[in-house]
Design goal:
This protein is about 40% helix and about 20% strand. The protein has about 270 residues and is an alpha/beta fold. It has an 8-stranded mixed sheet with strand order 1-2-4-3-5-6-7-8, sandwiched between helices. A hairpin with a 4-residue loop joins strand 1 and strand 2. The longest helix is centred in the last third of the chain and has 19 residues. The radius of gyration is 19 Å and the shape is globular. The chain starts with a helix and ends with a helix.
Length: about 270
């Protein structure tokens, strides 16, 4: 009887621990865009809302073109709350609204570089118990979000200490008529300098040695495979440290579901170095 009671107590405590997990949809106001943006915030099970001394690292997770703030948790990786608990990190999924996570030079309502890297980060650090340092923040995503993860990580190393990409559009120039990019940058033929300036592969000169932990993953059958290969080769040539994963697979949510497992492990190891 005592063993049964102890077992029941353990079950109750476990269920209480699991039920303490929070998955919220919040709106954060963007002063630069003058509007509210939705985001999913996942707190790991056992998140201590009282003890401010317990600080959690934060993974910013970006969706691809056509997606929205809840794409990761409702479609791409439904086990994301459990993964946040496994790695004891907060996960934040902003709504990128097909922005490619740039501050658009032609659309004042599409300023998502500033939103994610500054406005959202400040909100999260103010309202949650975070490790408010680049050593406690990472950013990654798939497809358009893979571009965004590297774009924001490389351009804001003071904010994000680690960044990644899954099947990312890391060189946009071979795709001038795709995914509404010309709505953000203008027509490629008329604005080649802008397109050159706003593509990830041309940001590598900004990376200081040993300043950023980077992980890149792309399927062998992905239409972005070649541009990822070129990025990898250029990073090798420049002696930029990074993890590079190529596996069988195409541009699919099933691929990104698996890819995130590798990336969360990578980021967890980065966070544990602090």
């Amino acid at each position: 009887m005592k063993r049964l009671s102890a077992l029941l107590l353990c079950i109750v405590l476990f269920l209480s621990y699991v039920s303490s997990q929070t998955v919220d949809t919040i709106e954060v106001f963007s002063p630069k865009m003058g509007r509210n943006i939705k985001n999913v915030v996942i707190l790991p099970a056992g998140y201590d809302k009282v003890n401010k001394e317990k600080q959690y690292p934060v993974l910013y997770l970006l969706h691809g073109y056509g997606g929205k703030y809840n794409t990761w948790v409702t479609f791409t990786k439904k086990s994301l709350p459990e993964e946040a608990s496994k790695w004891d990190m907060i996960v934040v999924c902003p709504d990128g609204q097909d922005s490619w996570y740039w501050d658009s030079p032609i659309d004042p309502k599409s300023q998502f570089d500033t939103y994610v890297s500054s406005e959202l980060v400040k909100y999260i650090d103010t309202n949650y118990h975070t490790y408010a340092s680049s050593k406690g923040r990472a950013i990654t995503g798939f497809s358009m979000g893979g571009h965004g993860g590297l774009w924001l990580g490389i351009n804001h190393p003071d904010v994000f200490g680690a960044c990644g990409s899954m099947s990312g559009g890391v060189d946009i120039r071979p795709f001038p008529n795709n995914w509404d990019m010309k709505k953000r940058l203008g027509n490629y033929k008329e604005n080649p300098d802008v397109w050159n300036k706003y593509t990830v592969i041309n940001q590598l000169d900004k990376i200081e040695p040993n300043s950023l932990s980077i992980i890149i993953d792309c399927g062998k059958d992905d239409f972005f495979y070649q541009v990822n290969e070129e990025l990898h080769k250029e990073m090798l040539y420049r002696n930029i440290s990074h993890d590079y994963i190529i596996r069988p697979g195409a541009h699919t949510h099933a691929y990104w579901n698996d890819a995130l497992d590798y990336q969360m492990l990578f980021f967890s190891k980065f966070f544990n170095q602090k």
